[in-house]
Amino acid sequence: MCQRKDFLKSAFLSCLLLVTAALESCGNRSQVIAVIPRTTSTTFWEAEHAGAEFAARKAGSQIRWNAPTREDDVQLQIEMVDGVIKARCKGLILAPDDARALMLPVERAIEAGVPTVVVGSALSLPPQRNLWYVLNDDEMVGRMAALRIGEVLHGKGEVAIVGIDPQSLSSLAILRSFVSVLEERFPKMAIVERHAGASSNVDAELIVIQAILSHPKINAIFSLDSLGTVGAYLALKSRALTDRVKVVGVQQSAELANAVRLHQIDALIAEDSYQMGYRAVELLTENQSQTPKMIKLPPLLITAENVDAPETKPFIANDWRVEFQ
């Protein structure tokens, strides 16, 4: 029993030292920028990491990169933001997992004098002193997806929408734009299903299977997140429907890009997460009085025709040896 107590005490002290070291890593406020994406180890957010690193090197700053291992671990992301405030970092770059839940932590950062750039998805907070936004052009995403589906279906057919996040201003903006353009440009097309985002590939696949069973004549699926796109791909592939049902998805990955290359997914609307990281660091290291408070980056439509083109590489590559500027 004594050995067990000694072991637990030692483990606790080790964890305490690691936390303290992490907080003190931002001690040199003039150099360190904390970057907290929604999660790690994905093509999408590693591209942001690469962009932030290249911009920081040019500015003589350092990046401290950390995030939850799951996008639904909102509490851990809140704790990380609070840790950045305590550590007195030069700045914070945050891709919020939950727009509502992260509002108060961001307000705390602003009030504490930590310059903050929110990337990926907007909060309800307006741009202000110590708060900037580098976002995807969501209206363009919705319009691009609607035009692509209308084109490949020749203006006729049934569409299911999956991956909607009712808590995300970005997701809702994409949805509004998609529906508006589809109704205006392609009146003979019908949206027959709308589903919220799933928590796993398996759940996303089940949602698409149910949609297919309810509407056997579905011709296209528009997914607003990568999980929905993967779920659609798995559901259609298992039923040999990838040729008949076209999938257009938002948010890219190397795996999904390969599915596009093989004509198993029609298209991806890729967000420029590399530039999100790069421009966010620039906002925190350059003359802030001369910079806009909100920057919107244009997305890229990735199809089998351009998936291997030079302009597509920054959206799906993780090669940190190459600076995409």
Mean pLDDT: 88
Top CATH class of the largest domain: Alpha Beta
- Tally of DSSP helical segments: 11
Q: How do the SSEs run, as a string of H and E?
A: HEHEHEHEEHEHEHEHEHEHEEH
Distance between the termini: 60 Å
Number of individual domains: 2
Class of secondary structure makeup: alpha/beta
Tell me the helix content: 40-55%
Largest sheet: 6 strands, parallel
CATH homology group of the largest domain = Response regulator
List the uncertain runs: 1-24
Could you give the count of β-strands? Answer: 12
Radius of gyration: 21 Å
**Outline type:** elongated
Under the CATH scheme, which architecture of the largest domain would be assigned? 3-Layer(aba) Sandwich
Strand content: 15-25%
- Reported by name, the CATH topology of the largest domain is Rossmann fold
Strand order of the largest sheet: 2-1-3-4-5-11
Describe the protein.
This protein is α/β, with parallel strands linked by helices. The chain has 2 domains: 18-135 and 273-297, Response regulator (Rossmann fold, 3-Layer(aba) Sandwich); 138-270, Response regulator (Rossmann fold, 3-Layer(aba) Sandwich), CATH 3.40.50.2300. It has 11 helices and 12 strands. It has helices at residues 2-24, 43-59, 74-87, 103-111, 138-152, 169-185, 201-214, 226-238, 254-261, 273-285, 313-316, and strands at 32-36, 62-65, 91-94, 116-120, 131-136, 157-164, 189-196, 218-223, 246-250, 267-270, 294-297, 300-302. The strands form 2 sheets. The protein has a 6-stranded parallel β-sheet with strand order 2-1-3-4-5-11, sandwiched between helices. Helix 8 (226-238) links the parallel strand 8 (218-223) and strand 9. The radius of gyration is 21 Å and the shape is elongated. The N and C termini lie far apart (60 Å).
